[in-house]
């Protein structure tokens, strides 16, 4: 895992790879990637149960894409990537 990643699958979050976009579970505040949220969500369910504290978060459109992106985390990721580029450590 890189600097900041999903605590379910341990992959690094990404602003450019759809399945790795960080999504906020608004009922509890935890963040997981879109791919894990999709895997956890039961089709037809209006809720997604947090894998950490079991608190259900409502899905307004019955779809994981209706979860808010964690823009604060995406901003941190961009700053880390920028810093790595400045330092010459960009590996990807």
Secondary-structure map with pairings?
Layout: E1 22-24, E2 31-33, H1 34-40, E3 47-49, E4 56-58, H2 71-87
Antiparallel strand pairs: 1-2, 3-4
Which sheet architecture does the biggest sheet show? Answer: 2 strands, antiparallel
Rounded average pLDDT: 90
Helix count from the secondary structure assignment: 2
Helix-strand category: alpha+beta
Helical fraction equals: 25-40%
For the largest beta sheet, what order do the strands appear in spatially?
Answer: 1-2
Total number of beta strands: 4
- Measured between the Cα atoms of the first and last residue, the distance is 13 Å
Q: Gist?
A:
With 92 residues, the protein is an alpha+beta fold. 26% of the residues lie in helices and 13% in strands. The chain is elongated, with a radius of gyration of 14 Å.
């Amino acid at each position: 895992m890189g600097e900041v990643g999903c605590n379910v699958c341990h992959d690094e979050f990404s602003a450019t790879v759809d399945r790795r976009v960080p999504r906020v579970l608004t009922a509890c505040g935890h963040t997981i990637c879109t791919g894990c949220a999709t895997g956890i969500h039961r089709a037809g369910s209006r809720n997604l149960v947090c894998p950490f504290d079991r608190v259900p978060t409502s899905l307004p459109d019955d779809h994981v894409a209706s979860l808010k992106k964690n823009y604060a985390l995406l901003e941190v990721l961009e700053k880390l990537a920028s810093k790595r580029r400045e330092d010459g450590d960009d590996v990807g």
